[in-house]
């Protein structure tokens, strides 16, 4: 099977020695391009006795994505079981099918329109928070602002509770998500951590348990609050699932004995995590791309003004947002370059033949948007930001699975329409108030290959910032180099 030379015991573990999740993206992309250059349509990597097979184009990925039987999650997901095991992300078999069917009404297009009020109100709070921060700061790290906003949106839409993360900063839940994700990748690619004693002795087990405690407590508190509000009559109890929010559907299923309290906790954990984290990451990279492509940003801004008018406080409506044709292409191109999910994984239950090669049962198939979206055989100059790749005539030239930012097939992301709508509303509010202008090079901000939070706008090893002029906006300064940063912005 094509792939880098592997040690008979450790496999390709040496590739990841002394590397961080910043390095993983480059490693996997380079390996994929080397394999493609040799005519391969898939490649193999190995860590100890775990085999990972990577489809290198959409046609090859179709075999596993279209399978109705090979839908089980891969080995690397095992680390997430104490947190998300039993939720829609992790569940398998008939239980997964039943939960998916049960939760689908929460993401019906008619239900999404009802979420617009929360999208708009929280986006306006986001703008106010950024403007307030600008009164005392030359630069602002936007990523935490986006994280807090999307967390408030998830709590308001899916849980029916007001959380106020945007007002009360430094929330432990956000930090715990970050920490747990990083542990997941470190554990997956460092075989010595698979030894329970080593894991405990090096302090990883304590970090794991501390993060898990914060994550579960946050979710349980949200469930208790909503259950009490429904019981007291503080909020009206709906009878139609199509009118219920995500959590109310789960609670009604608890009453009918379809779900246990632990089932509900796992589903809420899954949706809270996936819903706020990927959207904020995707929006961050979108703004980064717009900042480095001023002509594209200006065209998006003009389209927004044409559709919504000059008033920066006007609410975004579903009718108008669907008229943002160019902006839609820009969002897609940003997700091509920086996919919200770096890869999904399947563990085979039986042997399967892909591109003439038999992959044994118990092997893992890694379907990686990060790898597929950079394919130079599909996307000419893949490192170039070009929204016209998503003109209808261009899309027809490639396989439908050459672009899968939310995966595809039976286990595609149930919340993808929710996420895209959320991102669009936030972007409209941001660009009606701010111009994004870069102060450092495009590649000085590094993507991270991590579980669901894989594309991060914060590189803690260097000083990142973006400063704006319609109003001042700045990006990613853990520490600011005053020689580089001058007040090159003016009030609108």
TrEMBL record:
List the molecular function annotations (GO) for this entry: heme binding; iron ion binding; monooxygenase activity; oxidoreductase activity, acting on paired donors, with incorporation or reduction of molecular oxygen
The positions annotated for binding heme are 413
Q: State whether keyword RNA-binding applies.
A: no
Q: Which UniProt keywords apply?
A: Heme, Iron, Metal-binding, Monooxygenase, Oxidoreductase
Task: Reply yes or no: does the keyword Iron apply.
Answer: yes
InterPro entries associated with the record? Cyt_P450 (IPR001128), Cyt_P450_CS (IPR017972), Cyt_P450_E_grp-I (IPR002401), Cyt_P450_sf (IPR036396), Cytochrome_P450_Monoox (IPR050196)
Output the Pfam families linked to this UniProt entry: p450
Cofactor dependence is on: heme
Record's family?
Answer: Belongs to the cytochrome P450 family.
Q: What is this protein called?
A: CRE-CYP-29A4 protein
UniProt lineage: Eukaryota, Metazoa, Ecdysozoa, Nematoda, Chromadorea
Q: Which gene encodes it?
A: Cre-cyp-29A4
């Amino acid at each position: 099977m094509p792939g880098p030379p592997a040690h008979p015991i450790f496999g390709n573990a040496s590739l990841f020695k002394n590397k961080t999740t910043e390095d993983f993206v480059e490693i996997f992309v380079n390996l994929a391009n080397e394999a493609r250059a040799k005519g391969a349509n898939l490649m193999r990597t190995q860590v100890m006795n775990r085999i990972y097979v990577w489809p290198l184009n959409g046609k090859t990925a179709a075999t596993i994505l279209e399978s109705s039987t090979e839908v089980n999650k891969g080995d690397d997901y095992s680390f997430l079981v104490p947190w998300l095991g039993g939720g829609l992300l992790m569940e398998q078999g008939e239980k997964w099918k039943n939960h998916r069917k049960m939760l689908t009404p929460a993401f019906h297009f008619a239900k999404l329109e009802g979420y617009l009020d929360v999208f708009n109100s929280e986006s306006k709070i986001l703008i106010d928070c950024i403007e307030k921060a600008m009164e005392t700061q030359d630069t602002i790290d936007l990523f935490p602002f986006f994280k807090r906003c999307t967390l408030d949106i998830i709590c308001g839409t899916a849980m029916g509770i007001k959380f106020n993360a945007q007002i009360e900063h430094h929330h432990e839940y956000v930090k715990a998500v970050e920490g747990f994700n990083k542990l997941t990748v470190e554990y997956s690619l460092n075989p010595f951590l698979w030894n329970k004693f080593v894991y405990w002795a090096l302090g990883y087990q304590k970090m794991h348990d501390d993060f898990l405690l914060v994550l579960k407590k946050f979710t349980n508190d949200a469930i208790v609050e909503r259950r009490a509000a429904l019981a007291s009559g503080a909020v009206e109890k709906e009878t139609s699932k199509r009118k219920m929010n995500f959590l109310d559907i789960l609670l009604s299923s608890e009453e009918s004995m379809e779900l246990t309290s632990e089932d509900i906790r796992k589903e809420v954990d899954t949706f809270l995590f996936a819903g706020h984290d990927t959207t904020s990451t995707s929006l961050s990279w979108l703004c980064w791309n717009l900042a480095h492509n001023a002509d594209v940003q200006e065209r998006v801004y003009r389209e927004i003004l044409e559709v919504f008018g000059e008033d920066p406080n006007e609410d975004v409506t579903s009718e108008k947002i669907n008229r943002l044709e160019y902006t839609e292409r820009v969002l897609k191109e940003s997700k091509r370059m920086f996919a919200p999910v770096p890869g999904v994984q399947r563990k085979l239950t039986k042997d399967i033949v892909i591109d003439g090669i038999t992959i044994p049962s118990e092997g893992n198939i890694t379907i990686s948007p990060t790898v597929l979206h950079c394919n130079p055989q599909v996307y000419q100059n893949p490192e170039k930001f070009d929204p016209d790749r998503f003109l209808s005539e261009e899309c027809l030239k490639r396989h439908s699975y050459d672009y899968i930012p939310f995966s595809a097939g039976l286990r595609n992301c149930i919340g993808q329409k929710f996420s895209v709508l959320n991102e669009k509303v936030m972007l409209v509010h941001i660009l009606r108030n701010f111009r994004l202008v870069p102060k450092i090079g495009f590649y000085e901000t590094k993507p991270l290959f991590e579980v669901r939070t894989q594309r991060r706008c914060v590189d803690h090893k260097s000083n990142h910032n973006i400063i704006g002029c319609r109003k001042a906006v700045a990006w990613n300064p853990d520490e600011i180099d005053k020689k580089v940063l001058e007040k090159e912005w003016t009030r609108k």
